[in-house]
Amino acid sequence: MTEITEGKAKILIPDPVEFSREGKFDPAWSPVFYNPRMVFNRDVSVLAVSVISPSSVLDAMAATGIRGIRFVLEGGVNGEVIFNDKNPVAIELISKNIELNRITNYKIMRADANSIMHQLKVDYTDLDPFGSPAPFLFAALSSLRRKGVLGVTATDLSALEGKSITACNRKYGASGKRLNYSKEAGLRVLLAKIAREAAVQEKGILPLISFYKDYYYRLFVKTVDGAKRADKALEQIGMLYECQNCGFSFMDKECQVKCPMCGGEVNAYGPAWIGKLNSIDFLNRMKERLDKAPQINNPNSVKRLLDSLISENGMGPYYRIDVLASKLKVNMPPTHRLIDCLEDGTRTHFDERGIKTSKSFDQLIECMKNL
Ligand code: SAM
């Protein structure tokens, strides 16, 4: 075992040297999973939980217990935290880590996440599986009390983005063609799946924060009880489109076969969430908390993400500047010049080659041609 520090927590993890492949630590080989590449995910999650301020928490797939422990030490959670994992070695480690960090209000359970989530009711459930969260979403939503919040990680991007369209259909019920704004499309497909699973339970969802990073999606949705709220959320599900000819990209409730700009054939992908991906109020509250969170590992990166999500929120899908440039047979303009030209445009956290704008597609093309 090795002791590491993450945020305010001290955590025992299986010795990284012992579980290395070709000199590189490989979390998949470890008897209990701890991935240093997920520190950013946990930092953002701790901030989000501090804003949610839940009275009870279920860390449904706890592994070393790092998330639940940080929620208490840094997220200000005073109520009970339930740590669950089906792996008996993880359970032993969670006990040690809880002791090491002097956590007092907790329960440790060794159960299948789906069965425990069907039995419990908490204010906040954290779902952090290997790969796809799809098999756990229904139970996770049912584990929430009124106005409860669900935090979800998904690392099966090849399915969600439509690289593996059969897997996407199996897990998320979405199909179609992979789009050039696939990173955003994947997140929207995941949200649509959550909205549908919630609707079965007569709950609506409101996305608080949802983003893409490196090789995963992370999102938090608040649930609101009632059939009408569920119906309202379902109204936010539609299809994603991209014109094969001119590249115009849009989202619509209605089925479209022709591009409204040029009449060309469109590629379609979905069903997908076509509503807002974030709550501006929630993001601003996270920013306020960030200023008071010196233990966060990468405060500047977290701030950059929050600022980016604030400026992107409510805009249509992003455009890949390189894709448009090649369609128009022009040189790829620098992003900042394109933003200046549009007077209302922003970079997107989804893709460094991407741009979002509230201006018309014609104006975007005009700027692309004139720069
Ligand atoms: N949340 C942890 C963190 O932030 O470091 C990492 C969780 S790891 C990606 C997934 C964990 O889920 C593993 O510890 C695994 O044993 C556990 N797990 C996988 N399937 C499960 C299931 N059906 N029920 C309960 N635990 C499960």
Describe the structure.
The chain has two domains: 2-312, Vaccinia Virus protein VP39 (Rossmann fold, 3-Layer(aba) Sandwich); 319-370, Phenylalanyl-tRNA Synthetase, Chain B, domain 1 (2-Layer Sandwich), CATH 3.30.56. Helix content is 37%, strand content 27%. It is built from 14 helices and 18 strands. A hairpin with a 2-residue loop joins strand 1 and strand 2. The protein is globular. Bound molecules: S-adenosylmethionine (SAM). The site of S-adenosylmethionine has 19 residues, from helix 2.
Helical content (DSSP H or I, runs of 4+): 25-40%
Q: Which strands sit side by side, in order, in the main sheet?
A: 7-6-5-8-9-12-11
Q: Residue-averaged pLDDT, rounded? A: 96
Rg, please? Answer: 21 Å
Distance between the termini: 57 Å
Summarize the structure.
The chain has 371 residues and is an alpha+beta fold. Helix content is 37%, strand content 27%.
